[in-house]
Design goal:
It is a single chain. The protein is mainly alpha-helical and about 425 residues long. It is built from 20 helices and no strands. It has helices at about 5-10, 10-40, 40-45, 50-80, 85-105, 110, 115-145, 150-180, 180-185, 190-210, 215-220, 230-235, 240-270, 275-305, 305-330, 330-350, 355, 365-385, 385-395, 400-420. The longest helix has about 30 residues, at about 50-80. Residues about 1-10 have low confidence and may be disordered.
């Protein structure tokens, strides 16, 4: 009996862990690139010249993956809504893992010339496709298997993945910074976290292959309620929640990537804070994000998704005004305070989304709908965040970066107001 158990009825703990481990790995992969782009990618893959141009080029390859993510959401969503959540999730993890490993193996400009940058962009696109298919499936795996009244809590597990993935990524770069010289880090050290990803992917795949299909989707499949082209049905009947969901997500992304990628670049290059010191500040800040994630998700089950999200978005609008004075101070304590506030609010806005976005869609287009809203939010809030912040700081100083953060939070606040409260919806039909 025990041999059959994992494939027929995985335990609630197994489901929670499987939805968490995948997003942790996927986001680890994504963040090691984000950090490498702030630290070395420009020097290695783009010809030497003006450092500012190098930084912008690196941030642009960073943006490419965000463009690929909605496409990944549509492709993997198609199969996730037609064939099932389980197989699609394993495939998305594989695409991401292979792309990440190959980035770690890719020779630089010195060896391949312009082709190095072209190959980097292609692999970065592959990373984006994989991540685009990952989140929607992980969120559905958790929420469609959740007991009544606990969807927010279960939807929190995929939302916890990013903070753990980020912590792993930051710690790996911190260890390399402490134990290697700058020359060693640039020559080969930065590649190590990319190789480590392959081991994590194997663990993730093993866990996922032991899962069963979610009850809500198994029911739709048994009743032949699936669409031939889920994206078509989604765009015809559910475009409003896709667009509002995307706008609601921008605050999470913008807070996160401003605090991590832009502030990392600004602090090391302009404020001359050592990379090791800044990464230690980030490790501290991300702990706040991890702590507030289950708290915010639990509150969304108790009081509803909208009150929790609106409160967190409002606080994020205020947080934008603290960016300039805290960052410009140059004080480690004040910069740590800003990073902690930003990541705490990122966790508070992000946690309820694990349930809130899937709840906006019926079961037959849920994978595509939730994934598309989530990843379009990434384009609006994150893909250009480091780039825009860099341009704003050069044009008008840090205060404008703060206004930018507040504006994005305000956009999300307005979008959440216009969305439906979904805590009570029946998830097997809806």
């Amino acid at each position: 009996m025990n041999k059959i158990l994992p494939t027929t009825a995985p335990s609630v703990t197994h489901i929670a862990f499987a939805s968490f481990i995948g997003t942790a790995i996927e986001f680890y992969d994504f963040y090691i690139y984000a950090m490498a782009s702030a630290l070395v990618i420009g020097q290695i893959f783009f010809p030497t010249g003006d450092p500012a141009t190098q930084a912008l080029n690196a941030f642009l390859t960073f943006g490419i993956a965000f463009i690929a993510r909605p496409l990944g959401a549509i492709i993997f969503g198609h199969f996730g809504d037609r064939i099932g959540r389980k197989t699609t999730l394993a495939a998305s993890l594989l695409v991401m893992g292979i792309s990440t490993l190959l980035i770690g193996c890719l020779p630089g400009y010195d060896t391949l010339g312009p082709w190095a940058a072209v190959m980097l962009c292609l692999l970065r696109f592959g990373q984006g496709l994989g991540l685009g298919g990952e989140w929607g499936g992980a969120a559905l795996l958790a929420t469609e298997s959740a007991p009544a009244g606990k969807r927010g809590w279960f939807g929190m597990f995929p939302q916890l993945g990013p903070s753990v993935g980020f912590l792993l990524a930051t710690l790996s770069f911190l260890a390399l910074t402490l134990y290697l010289t700058d020359a060693e880090f640039k020559a080969w050290g930065w590649r190590m976290p990319f190789f480590a990803s392959a081991l994590l992917v194997m663990v993730g795949l093993y866990v996922r292959f032991k899962l069963a299909e979610t009850p809500a989707f198994a029911k739709a499949l048994a009743q032949h309620h699936t669409h031939r082209t889920p994206i078509q049905a989604l765009l015809k009947q559910h475009i409003r929640p896709v667009l509002l969901g995307a706008l609601a997500m921008t605050v999470c992304y913008n807070l996160f990537y401003t605090a991590t990628v832009f502030c990392l670049s600004y602090s090391t290059k302009t404020l001359h804070i050592s990379r090791a010191d800044f990464l230690q500040m980030l490790c501290l800040a991300v702990v706040f994000m991890a702590i507030v994630t289950p708290l915010s998700a639990g509150l969304s089950d108790k009081f509803g998704r909208k009150p929790v999200l609106l409160t967190a978005c409002f606080l994020a609008v205020l947080a934008g005004f603290s960016l300039s004075p805290l960052m410009a101070s140059g004080s480690s304590l004040q910069i740590s305070l800003f990073l902690s506030i930003a990541l705490l609010l990122m966790g508070a806005t992000f946690a309820p989304m694990g349930a809130f976005l899937p709840e906006q869609f019926p079961v037959t287009v849920r994978y595509t709908g939730a994934g598309l809203a989530y990843n379009l939010g990434g384009i609006l809030g994150a893909s250009s965040a480091p780039y825009v912040a860099q341009l704003l700081v050069e044009a008008g100083g840090l205060v404008w970066v703060g206004y930018y953060v507040s504006t994005m939070a305000l956009i999300s606040f307005m979008a959440v107001i216009l969305m439906q409260e979904t805590r009570q919806v029946d998830f097997s039909h809806h």
